[in-house]
Amino acid sequence: MTSDELYPADRLEKVREAADAAGLDAVLLTPGPDLRYVIGYDAKQLERLTCLAVPAGSDPVLFVPRLELAAAQASPAGALALEMVPWDETDDPFALVAGRLGAVSRVGVSDRMWALSVLKFRDALPGARLALAGGALRTLRIRKSPAEVAALREAGAAIDRVHAQVAGWLRPGLTERAVGSVITESILAEGHATVDFVIVGSGPNAASPHHEVSDRVMAAGDVVVVDIGGTMPSGYCSDSTRTYALGEPPAEFTAYYKVLYDAQEAACAAVRPGVTAESVDAAAREPITRAGFGAAFIHRTGHGIGLEAHEDPYIVAGNREPLEPGMAFSVEPGIYPGPHGARIEDIVVCTQDGAERLNHTPRELVIAG
Ligand code: ZN
Ligand code: ZN
Ligand code: ZN
After folding, report:
1. Ligand 3 mean position, distance from CA 334 (Å)
2. Which run of H or E residues covers position 187?
3. Predicted structure pTM score
């Protein structure tokens, strides 16, 4: 997909409409996923203010430090009909933004705006109440366009190429850290722009879902949970987990791994338009609970993914939001009874009549080493 398919020019107008519908007089977006979503500019978050102002009643403006202007113009934002206002080192950029906005009473700020900027905007806009812009933006970001789905598919294929090699790298006698650094290089080599996380949880560490890597030396009979992800040059993220065993795993592990496999299948099969996010969580949880491992499934079933590795919709009890075509999220049940554990994670996209999985490496327990 081209960058104008991924970051189409009508997003500025859609954000303006969403801000208006949310009762905001303006939205202020500093560097982060919201800004990138709206204008395609992957701006650096710096102490110098870069800020896209989208007023409900006038044209949007991008305020940039003068030394960042060339980078802003070279980004997809440069192809938009968007006024860019460079500010100089001795200017007060917060006063410039406030002056352009004029009288405003409710202003949405991006969820990831630094407190440093939020408090300066509070002083520069004394008549305005600041609110989070995320609520207005989520309605747009939560449904992925065909180009966004294609970008996520590309990210899924890239992380699959890494997982396809992991079994060959896991060996008794190596530390988690050593294997983790090979995986880190491979995530980049397979096309990601950045590595977001590398979890190599072996032996008892497999029972800690967000363990990263340690100096633990892997041994025969270990189970190893490998959960990895990165961000592609498109801006879109990958995230996939597979569980490996170094030789024959303990019998009780093999028994609950089968339960986990069936639970992940059931949850993926439950995905279709109109079903609630929480019902997908229930579809994963029910077989695990029935087998007696309910207390060992200690996290939600999944999270949305896109320009952020974790975003809406969250696949969790209490989220009654109905799924819609274009929603992309992980389906990643886990069972962590100790002294080992397991997780299987795919990214799926809700389609017109079901789900498309974006990860395709085998989900059966992979015997390595
Ligand atoms: Zn996680
Ligand atoms: Zn993951
Ligand atoms: Zn995940």
Report:
1. 11
2. helix 176-189
3. 0.96
Check residue 309 and report its DSSP letter: S
Distance 345 CA to ligand 3 centre (A): 7
Nearest ligand by distance to the CA of 229: 2
Centre of ligand 3 to C-alpha 103, Å, is: 42
CB-side neighbour CA atoms (13 Å) of 57: 9
Ligand nearest to the CA of 197: 2
Distance CA 68, CA 58 (A): 24
Q: What is the pLDDT of residue 62?
A: 98
With a cut of 80, say whether residue 38 has pLDDT above it. Answer: yes
Å from CA of 197 to ligand 2 middle: 8
Query: pLDDT tens, 108-138?
Result: 999 999 999 999 999 999 999 999 999 999 9
Please state the rounded mean pLDDT for residues 100-111.
Answer: 96
Ligand nearest to the CA of 211: 1
Give the environment of ion ligand 2: residues with CB less than 5 A.
Answer: 227, 239, 241, 345
CB-based contacts of 33, cutoff 8 Å, min separation 6: 112, 141, 235, 306, 307, 308, 311
Kindly list the structural domains of the chain, giving each domain's residue range(s) and its CATH number in brackets, ordered by start: 3-141 (3.40.350.10), 146-368 (3.90.230.10)
- Find, among 267, 280, 246, the residue nearest to 344 by Cα: 267
Ligand 1: distance of its center to the CA of 193 in Å? 20
- Cα–ligand 1 centroid distance for 171 (angstroms): 25
Whether the predicted pLDDT of 1 surpasses 80: no
Q: What is the mean pLDDT of the chain?
A: 97
